[in-house]
Amino acid sequence: MDQGLLERLRERLDGDGREPVFAHGLLAVQLPREALLDTVKLLKEEFGFDMFLDVTAVDWPQREPRFDVVHHFYSTRDHVRVRLKMAVTEADAVVDSLVDHYGSAHFMERECHDMYGIVFRGNADLRPILLYEGFEGHPLRKDYPKEREQPLVRYRE
Amino acid sequence: MNQVHEKSGAFEYLTTRKDELVGWARKFSIFPYPFVTACCAMEFMSVSSTMYDTDRFGAALPRFSPRQSDLLMVVGTITHKQAPILKKVYEQMCEPKWVMAFGVCATSGGFYRNYAALQGIDKIIPVDVYIPGCPPRPESVIDGIMQLQDKIANASHPIINEKF
User: Fold this and answer.
1) Which of A131, B5, B57, B158 would you call most buried, defined as having the most Cβ atoms within 10 angstroms of its Cβ?
2) Range of the structural domain that residue A84 is part of
3) Which residues, 6 or more positions from B124, have their beta carbon under 8 angstroms from its beta carbon?
4) Which residue of A has its CA nearest to B81?
5) A67 domain residue, yes or no
6) Number of cross-chain residue pairs from A and B with Cβ atoms under 8 Å apart
7) Which residue has the higher pLDDT, B16 or B128?
8) CATH number at residue A22
């Protein structure tokens, strides 16, 4: 692992509301959602983070803003990872989509939209991918009742 | 012309009940349709291959068309998204047909109690034999097949109409 690269990246990312820190051997960056596209472009074009690993969210029901949207990136050249975290509110759970930079963002953003109801501005196809048409709510939000079922087939009797 | 009919000592005819005869024939020709969705598949492969050999019970030759099969083996977790497919496969099977819930997930949802998992396939289709275990031991599966055989052998088998 190239710790020097991550250190250079940390210095480069500091500022503009971004707070890069080292956590568990990777660089974790807290940033405002307005800075997402610029940051991703910088990661991809200047630092060679060519692989978009995942996008998911964290639900903090007691906190305001309620959600963290978390992106992970990997560099197949330098074998290092970066995590981006953005806080968004429940009323305005919108972040920019990465489909223009990473093709794999299409499916992963659909999954995140299924499970947490995060809207990705710029992803034109946010149909359910793991859930099915007609499913109400977002099952990985903490306020989804864990025993609630939405069957597609009518039960016997 | 004057030939005398000699008795050879072999059975020339025997008497039985129609249901017993048909049941005996049917219980040794259970063509399964493996509806395999999850990790229980590993145990299904084990039980149907040489070591445990469900062919001894006439239940080894899988038919991959529901129209040719007698036994629907539901092997693994069924999700709500998968349930319409399972129901359609069941409805396409010809009578007589039987259903086996293989493992706890198919039986009751197992340890999945969430938005995704169907809490047992008997919510949508009738089940004849339940096999517990996560996954079941091959011996449990064989026991389940033998119980199903008993059920078939002791059942009524209308083959022309309800009276015969």
Assistant:
1) A131
2) 3-121
3) A153, A154, A155, A156, B83, B86, B87, B118
4) A132
5) yes
6) 38
7) B128
8) 3.30.460.80
Contacts of A147 in chain B (CB under 8 A): 113
- Number of domains, chain B: 1
Name the residue range of residue B101's domain. 30-153
**Into how many domains does chain A fold?**
1
Question: What is the rounded distance in angstroms from the CA atom of residue B116 to the CA atom of residue B7?
Answer: 69
> Alpha-carbon distance B107 to B77, whole Å?
9
Provide residues of A within 8 Å CB-CB of chain B: 131-132, 139, 144, 146-156
B9 in a domain, yes or no?
A: no
| Residue of B115, B122, B123, B125 to mutate, testing the A interface (most A Cβ within 10 Å of its Cβ) | B115
Amino acid identity at B23: G
The enclosing domain of B135 has a CATH number of 3.40.50.12280
**CA–CA distance, A98 with A65 (Å, rounded to integer):** 22
Is residue B89 less than 8 Å (CB to CB) from chain A?
no
Closest alpha carbon within chain A to B88: A153
pLDDT (tens digit, 9 = 90+) per residue, B8-39? 777 777 788 888 888 898 989 899 999 999 99
